[in-house]
C-alpha cells in the first residue's frame, strides 16, 4: 500500500483490476478448465495415463530436446547479441531484423522447410546420411526445429543488458591487467546471467509446447520421436478428452516446477 | 496446392468465428482429399437447385483431418452436412454431440456412402523395387510411407487392408499381427495426415511406396503428369467407405433441412456419381460405374462391416490406446 501513495500516477485500483480480469480471461480460466476436466479421472486413472511408457518416452523427448535447444540458443544467442551490440558493420540492421523472423513465420512453414532441407536425401541431410546418421526424423531434427523457433528469446533478453554495460567497464578491467577471457568470465557473464536465465527459461518453455514445426520433422515414431503435444492430439483423435487433458496437466506441472526453479536460481544470483 | 490449403484453413477459422450463417448458405464439413470433388460438385448442385426454381445458394466447404473435423462439429461448428472419411467419426456426432440419431447410416442408400474408394500403392516410376503386392512391403530395404492410424482416417484403412491381406494369406490373427508389425518396421515416418504423407513421398522423395487413397494416388499422378510415379494395385484391398450425413441439430436450428437433404441426395444422382468418378472416387451407380470401369483396376475388396464387424468393433480393437497398433510399437 505504501507504493500506492508514493506513485506519481494514480489509478492503482483500476490497473490492478484490469490486470486481474485480463489474466483470468486469458490464463486462469482456460488453465482452470484444464484441471477441472482432469478431475473426471480418478487418481489411479490419471497415474496410469501419465506413467504409460509411451507418455514417459515422449516426456523425456519433449523436455530433453527443448533443453538442448535452449542450451544451444544460450550459447549462440549470447554470441549473436554480443556481435550485434558491440560491433558496427554493414548489414547489421538486416541481421537484427532477421532475428525476429522465427516469431513471424508460421511454425508449420519453418517445419516443412527444415524437413525438406534436412531429410535423409535433402540438400543438407544427404551429407548426414553419408556420415551415417539422420537429422530429420530423429531427436536431432526436433532440436533443430526448436532451436530455430526459440532463437529470438536469448538474443532479445540479453541485448539491452549488454548495451547497458559501458565499454569503459571492460576497458577498466583490461587496464587492471585482466586478459580478454578473464574480462568475459569475471565482468561480463555475471552481469548478464540473470537476463540470460530469463531468455533460457523462455526458450525452454516455448520449446516444450511447440507443435507446428516439430510435427513435420519429427517422424512421429512411437517411443522414439513422438513429442508430448502429439500424444495430446492422438488422445483427442480418439475423443479421449480427459486423457488429453491429463497429459496437458502433466506438461503444465513439470514446466511450472522447472520455471519456478529457474526463477529461484535467478533470485539467488541477483542477491549474491 | 499448399497455398489453397492455407486459404481454406483461414476460411474454416473465419467460419467458426463468423456470425450465424444465413439460411441460404450451406456448410459442408469434409475430410482432406475431397477438396477437388466438392468444388466441382457444389457448382453442379447449385445449377440443379436453381433449375428447380430456388434462389442460388452459397456452399462453403471446410477440409481437414477427419477426426479433427468431427471434433469441430461436436464443439459447435455449424455444419449442415458432414462428409467424412469413416463412419466411426460420424458415430461420434451421435455419441458425444447428440447432433444426429444413432441410426444415421440407414437414412441414405448404400449405408450413406454415395461413393467409395480403396487403398492402392504409389511407387516411383519404373517400380525399381519391384513392388507388386502386400508381400513386397515387408521385404528388408523397402521403405513404406503411410500416415499414423491414430491421427489419420486414411491410415486406418491402410492398416486394415494390410491386415486383411495377411489374415487371408496366413489364416490366423497372430500371423496377421506379425505381418503388419514387420510392415510398420519398414515405415520411417508417420505423418499425422494423408496429405502430409503424400508430401513426404512426392515432394521430399522419402520412401519406395506410398499407401494411398486411390483417388489421392490418381490425383498425384494427374498433377505430376504421370512422369515420376506409377499406381500398383495389390491383389486384395479394402473397400474404403467415406459416408455422408445431415447434421440434424444444425439444420433444424438454421432451417436448412430441405436444402441439406437435397444436397446429399444429389450425390446419388447420375450427375453426382459422374462427378465423383471424374474425381477418381468409385461410383455406386452401376450405369456410371460401367462408364468408368477402365479407370479403376478390378480388385478383390474386403469391407469394414463384412470382415471387421464395423468401426464400432475395429476402432477399439486396432487403434485405441493399448490396441493392436500400440502393441506393435510397445513390443520393441
TrEMBL record, chain A:
<feature type="transmembrane region" description="Helical">
    <location>
        <begin position="187"/>
        <end position="205"/>
    </location>
</feature>
<keyword id="KW-0472">Membrane</keyword>
<keyword id="KW-0764">Sulfate transport</keyword>
<keyword id="KW-1133">Transmembrane helix</keyword>
<dbReference type="InterPro" id="IPR035906">
    <property type="entry name" value="MetI-like_sf"/>
</dbReference>
<comment type="function">
    <text>Part of the ABC transporter complex CysAWTP (TC 3.A.1.6.1) involved in sulfate/thiosulfate import. Probably responsible for the translocation of the substrate across the membrane.</text>
</comment>
<keyword id="KW-0813">Transport</keyword>
<comment type="subunit">
    <text>The complex is composed of two ATP-binding proteins (CysA), two transmembrane proteins (CysT and CysW) and a solute-binding protein (CysP).</text>
</comment>
<dbReference type="InterPro" id="IPR000515">
    <property type="entry name" value="MetI-like"/>
</dbReference>
<dbReference type="InterPro" id="IPR011865">
    <property type="entry name" value="CysT_permease"/>
</dbReference>
<feature type="transmembrane region" description="Helical">
    <location>
        <begin position="131"/>
        <end position="155"/>
    </location>
</feature>
<feature type="transmembrane region" description="Helical">
    <location>
        <begin position="12"/>
        <end position="36"/>
    </location>
</feature>
<protein>
    <recommendedName>
        <fullName>Sulfate transport system permease protein CysT</fullName>
    </recommendedName>
</protein>
<keyword id="KW-0812">Transmembrane</keyword>
<feature type="domain" description="ABC transmembrane type-1">
    <location>
        <begin position="59"/>
        <end position="262"/>
    </location>
</feature>
<feature type="transmembrane region" description="Helical">
    <location>
        <begin position="241"/>
        <end position="265"/>
    </location>
</feature>
<dbReference type="InterPro" id="IPR005667">
    <property type="entry name" value="Sulph_transpt2"/>
</dbReference>
<feature type="transmembrane region" description="Helical">
    <location>
        <begin position="97"/>
        <end position="119"/>
    </location>
</feature>
<feature type="transmembrane region" description="Helical">
    <location>
        <begin position="63"/>
        <end position="85"/>
    </location>
</feature>
<dbReference type="Pfam" id="PF00528">
    <property type="entry name" value="BPD_transp_1"/>
</dbReference>
<comment type="similarity">
    <text>Belongs to the binding-protein-dependent transport system permease family. CysTW subfamily.</text>
</comment>
<comment type="function">
    <text>Part of the ABC transporter complex (TC 3.A.1.6.1) involved in sulfate/thiosulfate import.</text>
</comment>
Automatic annotation (TrEMBL), chain B:
<protein>
    <submittedName>
        <fullName>Sulfate ABC transporter substrate-binding protein</fullName>
    </submittedName>
</protein>
<dbReference type="InterPro" id="IPR005669">
    <property type="entry name" value="Thiosulph/SO4-bd"/>
</dbReference>
<dbReference type="Pfam" id="PF13531">
    <property type="entry name" value="SBP_bac_11"/>
</dbReference>
<feature type="signal peptide">
    <location>
        <begin position="1"/>
        <end position="22"/>
    </location>
</feature>
<comment type="similarity">
    <text>Belongs to the prokaryotic sulfate-binding protein family.</text>
</comment>
<keyword id="KW-0574">Periplasm</keyword>
<dbReference type="InterPro" id="IPR034408">
    <property type="entry name" value="Sulphate/thiosulphate_BS"/>
</dbReference>
<keyword id="KW-0813">Transport</keyword>
<keyword id="KW-0732">Signal</keyword>
